[in-house]
Amino acid sequence: MSVPSPFALFDLSGRTACVTGASAGLGRRAADVLLAAGAKVVGVARRGDALDDWAGQAGEAAGFVVGDLAQRDQVAGIAERVSAAFGPPDILVNAAGINTREPADEITPEGWDVTLNLNLAAPFFLAQALVPGMRKAGWGRILNFASLQSYRAFPGGLSYGATKGGVVQMTRAMAQAWSAEGITANAIGPGFFRTELTAAVFADPERAARNAAATCIGRNGEPSDIDGPVLFLCSDAGGYVTGQTLMVDGGFTAK
């Protein structure tokens, strides 16, 4: 039996992706990976200047929508604007997130709601709004961002960890709901990567070194470390993988 070129499995030519949190960090990296694989990509974030900078560097295959996904009443409108750019997306990467790092005794209802809305509600309702287009095409990929705190409790991370634990179960439930229609749903759980969200961690060299030592590999993550997992789970290569959370953490959660 002949085997077709495995490289074709990762080709996203003709596909369209929506990436939230594309203005910076791992969201921007994910958007760039999908662009490099041939997809057209619409980035979503609050910061229009950062999105404009990204799209300007990415070229004609990139578009962007400025909006606040933490405001639940904006999600439906954002989904419509995303689809207006290049047509209904085949791929949704939910990378936007917030970590308020509040001690449990100091968590406010307002902080709790913002964290839940952005980290958990927005990925679901945005997916719900975009699934009809994927269903019509008979092909779709949803990739959520989980976290070390999906499985581990960290100081100051009660509300964040609650949402990221929820992302893992939400991903399973999305798979159960939609995968029979050709739409896979998976998550990746990054370890410690140097991004805006983890700036406080890397500002302390001793803490960063301890985190690196806690992995099996012995170092913290570099942005390029998510390239392969993102492309695998957003392409035909991952077509029989759904409902899974892949920890991209150097083995942190294995120890």
Structural summary, described in words:
There is one protein chain. The protein has 255 residues and is an alpha/beta fold. It has one domain (6-254): NAD(P)-binding Rossmann-like Domain (Rossmann fold). Helix content is 41%, strand content 15%. It has helices at residues 25-36, 48-58, 75-86, 109-137, 158-178, 199-202, 205-213, 227-233; strands spanning 16-20, 40-45, 62-66, 91-94, 140-145, 183-190, 245-248. A 7-stranded parallel β-sheet has the order 3-2-1-4-5-6-7, with helices on both faces. The longest helix is centred in the middle third of the chain and has 29 residues, at 109-137. The chain is globular, with a radius of gyration of 18 Å. It starts with 15 loop residues before the first strand and ends in a 7-residue tail after the last strand. The model has no long low-confidence stretch (mean pLDDT 96).
SSE arrangement:
Layout: E1 16-20, H1 25-36, E2 40-45, H2 48-58, E3 62-66, H3 75-86, E4 91-94, H4 109-137, E5 140-145, H5 158-178, E6 183-190, H6 199-202, H7 205-213, H8 227-233, E7 245-248
Parallel strand pairs: 1-2, 1-4, 2-3, 4-5, 5-6, 6-7
Summed up:
The chain is of the alpha/beta class and 255 residues long. The chain is built from eight helices and seven strands.
Keywords for this entry:
alpha/beta; Rossmann fold; seven-stranded parallel sheet; 8 helices; 41% helix
